[in-house]
């Protein structure tokens, strides 16, 4: 999704360009930069990668930049941010949605403002221009903007004199101080290694950044510093590879933290789990564990929650690695009654604001778009909370799985890279892994993949099976006998059977054997082979797994 970055201080444009490159992982279609020149603001922007768009930028004391993932207005050079006001003295970058932009644009046009984009964002900078004319002061102008706009936003306005005015409501925004200057960013990763103090503005707060420092109006919370080594690629080709292989460490750090903090949740009523994408699969895992223990628990895809939720729950468990997914936040924002428990990988993220209790996965920042280590650590948290299984050997077991699976996955990827479609099947808890395997393969390797409970496959999906069709079975040892019939049905029609199991079997053409564990922990060991297959297949197909097309790391719009 869109990203904001800005600096006041030495080498500001250079920092903003490198910050924009760091933000690339979030997904974007256009980009741009604005630099304060004293008498005017310089803007360079357009459709395409940062290297293509931002190529010759003058030096200046302050700069802001943006990566855009189009929502309002097509992917065009004009719609790329920053947007200038009529006088060319101010430029805005914005994430989120200004709901009343149509009405405001009409008003501003009637008062003589000329717009150069179709975006909702541009109204902000024209309102700011009016505010300065009215009040003769930047902070008052900012208040004027805030009094007029409705919606969810995080924005930064650069003034030609080198000040930056920022505000947020419903979309993330951080301000920071370092020895070389002050910063604004929508994401903690570009601040790693440069900022000494980072603060998340609370919803409704705003701030002014100047060479003298940061002045915040309203509430804010300090954000813990991230160890710079956590975001270095090291010897890996891609972040996705790095993050898959980091899982033993990530699971161990998460377990150590859970034990150290003695994390326990006492729940005894109706429980709803809400999440999106991969985190929804973790929610399904949580639902399974809770139901096994007799709880009235149900997992919901966050964007569907309002249609399906039924009777109010007593507790909501919200799972989001980024802590910024709007589909999840919009549920929490509108809740009135249930106690909210959150699981997130991002300390300082917005989900904290809407939650009564927060538990962290200790995966470290996840830069690859595909969720990998954040997923296995979400499962680890849920297993710690709701399973009686012994977790102490998990980190070592995950390491064993990666070591034994990588060569098999790399070899099989050569075959899979030539296929167009695949099924992921399992029964019971293994359906969760099947769903996650299918999601990884389609989003990273662009191969159509669907997941089903194995028993459902003969009620329709089997129609597609023909010679060489890949079918990926996830089967914990006690499910092997249950899926045997399904495997035979597929094989009889020519399917290629790939399987991950912790049992003994001769059913598979390609087999991933993982250590024998408690069935409730099997999802933590059965998913790495599917992550590796998706990764190596993407590489085999020449697709960059860190930047899959059309996807964004943190989906901050509904
Ligand atoms: C898949 C993926 C997405 C996210 C989803 C939710 O690899 O990354 O499906 O899982 O957008 O994101 P969070 O967990 O940040 O709420």
Describe this structure in words.
The protein is an alpha/beta fold. The protein has 15 helices and 24 strands. It folds into 3 domains: 3-226, Glutamine Phosphoribosylpyrophosphate, subunit 1, domain 1 (4-Layer Sandwich); 232-388, Rossmann fold (3-Layer(aba) Sandwich), CATH 3.40.50.10490; 404-547, Glucose-6-phosphate isomerase like protein, domain 1 (Rossmann fold). The strands form 4 sheets. The chain has an 8-stranded antiparallel β-sheet with strand order 3-2-4-1-10-9-11-14. The radius of gyration is 25 Å and the shape is elongated. The mean pLDDT is 94. Bound molecules: fructose -6-phosphate (F6R). Fructose -6-phosphate (F6R) binds next to helix 8 and helix 13. Fructose -6-phosphate is lined by residues 276-279, 320-322, 325, 328, 370-371, 439, 443, 554-555.
Second CATH tier, the architecture of the largest domain: 4-Layer Sandwich
Strand content: 15-25%
Give the bound compounds: fructose -6-phosphate
Low-confidence stretches: none
Helix content: 25-40%
CATH superfamily of the largest domain: Aminohydrolase, N-terminal nucleophile (Ntn) domain
For the record, the CATH class of the largest domain is Alpha Beta
Q: Could you give the order of strands across the largest sheet? A: 3-2-4-1-10-9-11-14
Structural class: alpha/beta
What's the CATH topology name of the largest domain? Glutamine Phosphoribosylpyrophosphate, subunit 1, domain 1
- Note the total helix count: 15
Major beta sheet summary? 8 strands, antiparallel
Q: Note the overall shape.
A: elongated
**How many discrete domains?**
3
